[in-house]
User: What shape does this take?
Amino acid sequence: MYGILTPLLSAAVLASLAAALPAPSPTLEERAATTSVVLPQGTIVGSVSSTVENFGGIPFAQAPVGKLRLKPPQRLNSSLGTFDATGAGPACPQMYFSTEGDLLISVLGDLINTPLFQTVTGQTEDCLTMRVQRPKGTTADAKLPVLFWIFGGGFELGSPQMYDASLLVQNGIDQGKPFIFVSVNYRVGGFGFLPGKEILADGASNLGLLDQRMGLEWVQDNIALFGGDPEKVTIWGESAGAISVFDQMALYDGNNTYNGKTLFRAAIMDSGSVVPAQAVDCARCQDIYDTVVKAAGCDGSADTLECLRDADYNTFLNAANSVPGIIGYTSVSLSYLPRPDGVILTASPDALALSGKYAAVPMIIGDQEDEGTLFSLFQVNITTTDELVDYIWQVFFSEVARDDIVGLVDTYDPSITAGSPFNTGILNNPYPQFKRLAAILGDMVFTLTRRIFLESALAANPNVPSWSYLASYDYGTPILGTFHASDILQVFYGLLPNYASKAIQSYYISFLYTMDPNNGTSSDIAQWPQWKENKELMQFWNNKSNLLADDFRSESMDYLSSHASTLLI
Assistant: This one.
């Protein structure tokens, strides 16, 4: 059976992950054409293509190296002089995937551990930089709205260089709605989200979120000089980037002000929102810290955190990457993610949402229909319901009673026809519990958590509008369906000339301009109702869309909602 699956999986994954490749470098002729913007810190020289100007790798903070490693970002106050920003900028140190296992695990592991998805150029700790892309010829008085992108990658990998927004910016130009695109580089993996009691005591938690926040502050200070309007910023992210978007809304109990003004006025979350999480110093978190310390050879040190700061780059990188990664058996039971620390995130994000302790702004939020399939390819040893329960219990929620997990699993129909990829009958089930596990993982991390968040938001802020969606445009992809991150090709790049790409980009750009996805869209694009009284989703297909009641798998949602305080990752 795996011989049949291999080419199917390879084709599906390659087609989607190709979208994450860095865009081709500008030609010599394009790089020869430059433009510049004068900032307080220096003159930033960018490159010019036929329709878009690019400024990549602009530093916004001091290099987080040496004694600044594993420390909150420090604002850059030194001069940049004349700074070459004609490229895409650096990448922060990346985490390599955990692919131990056999058969299907090793097949997909080998595939994903290729440069297609894994490798980015220019990895360096000195990576706290911004990328700005704007329509060619934009003047400083243009006051264009700003789309602030936070990349995804499981809080383990990614960089602005992977997301060239030229086509997206061009789409805005074509619609008569030009805008400025900004992407922030932030620390990932153990460099940005290392947990542990030592981290908590040192005030070194959630550093990646603080990087993002300083990037938003940089926009407030500088984007007007690029022709942007700092009062019209929409934050947008996918996967870990979407989770980060809500975290930015919830930082400091919802205080999103800087110098007396709000950092953003609207938000878009693709495949991610609230993640119920244990505190930074939880028992599992301490195990992660201790594993990194031991791998770095710091376990005999009197001050293990200072030892990690003093370690050479490769030693710390390898140590930080010695814990399980997202593409592996432990799946979305992430080693590194934002966690409550009592200051930056004062409580679990779901609790902050429930209590209304977040910056309530108009938002678009939605999911791919089969969020869990990509993360369920590695557990081929799970063949019975008891093994499924034990896997979820031991890997995700070992501190709760096993019966709590039995209760969750029991809300999911054991029939092959009921699982994910949904609506595919008896097909696409490479091992006996694959489709059921995929449904559960997709729901508890993405799809049903989104609905729980929307319910909380509606109760806390009934007058703040939201719109929600379910993407089904990759229906029919073998094994994976409309899988997690497959929207990058459709939504970010818009490479497929179909209704889904056109409609979603049109909705998003209208939302950027007016905080309502319906204002200014063409007559052939359907009206998108708010997620309010009728609680309807816009369901996107390749060549059409329709409204869908957001009430599927309600028993599972009720269970997750009622156990949110205990089912913490």
Notes: Residues 2-562 form a domain with the Rossmann fold fold (CATH 3.40.50.1820).
